[in-house]
Amino acid sequence: MPRRPRVVLPGVSLHLIQRGNNRQACFYADDDCRLYLEWLHTYARDSGCAIHAYVLMTNHVHLLLSSTAARGVGEMMKRLGQRYVQYINRTYRRSGTLWEGRFRSCLTQEETYVLGCYRYIELNPVRAGMVEHPGEYRWSSYRANAQGEACGWLEPHACYQSLAADEQGRQAAYRELFRYQLDPGLVDEIREATNGNYVLGSSRFQEEVAKALGRRVVRGRSGRPKKQVDADAGDLFGTGR
For residue 3, is it within any domain? Predict the structure, then answer.
């Protein structure tokens, strides 16, 4: 079965996840994380991508980003993935694949969904039981977005910038979002849309993206279309046309 083409539109934010092969580790030491982020910055810049949020977990990566070109994200991830695999194989004297096939992603509507993805990404270490607070985890964008830690290549999304008129106000408003748990329903929506390469947002947003791309961008219903089922039933009872 051919792979579904990615749902990507220039200028529309994308939530992306890439896992280690068989969910095995892809980061073994701090140097691995540091180099991955260094190369992420380089290839994002070269491919016209803006990184809004990230987290590096032991066996997977989450990114929230936007691209000026439809193919920018794919080009960035290809170059980044190849260079990082070469580094890991050389450093740890291993061979073979590191990643679990293609990365998975979903287009993300602005407003609550973008900020929800920010939180979903940066709360990963908390959900995994690695830390009690996202600020305790070194390899995520939380410290930059919420606490003002220097990160010259991280680019705030317009939804983040709209939280307040100045930098300190935005950080305070962003920290306030983390006082509350992420709604379990939203977590499920993000996971389903990302794993299925669908669109995360309202029905209207999904319809607009589907029209722009000329194809389905949400999960289809199981089974055959109703018209076909009715036609088959008619044939069975001698009433079909």
Answer: no
pTM across the whole model: 0.85
As a whole number, the mean pLDDT across the chain is 87
- Per the CB < 8 A criterion, the answer to whether 26 and 60 are in contact is yes
Q: Residue 8: inside a domain, yes or no?
A: no
Number of domains in the chain: 1
Which CATH number is 174's domain given?
Answer: 3.30.70.1290
For residue 9, tell me if it sits in a domain.
Answer: no
If pLDDT is split at 50, 70 and 90, which confidence band does 236 have? very low
Distance set, CA 131 to CA 4, 38, 57, 124, 198 (Å): 36, 24, 12, 9, 30
Mean pLDDT lowest among 30-34, 97-101, 118-122, 223-227: 223-227
Residue 71 structure tokens: 């193919």
| Assigned token pair, 96 | 């073979």
Q: DSSP 3-state assignment of 241?
A: coil
State pLDDT tens for residues 119-161: 999 999 999 999 999 999 999 999 999 999 999 999 999 999 9
Site of tokens 């029905």: 203
For residue 120, is it within any domain? yes
The range of the structural domain enclosing residue 80 comes to 14-236
Cα distance between residue 201 and residue 186, in whole Å: 10
Buried b (16+ CB within 10 A) or exposed e, 1-20: eeeeebbbbeebbbbbbbbb
**What string of DSSP letters covers 138-158?**
SSBSHHHHHH----TT----H
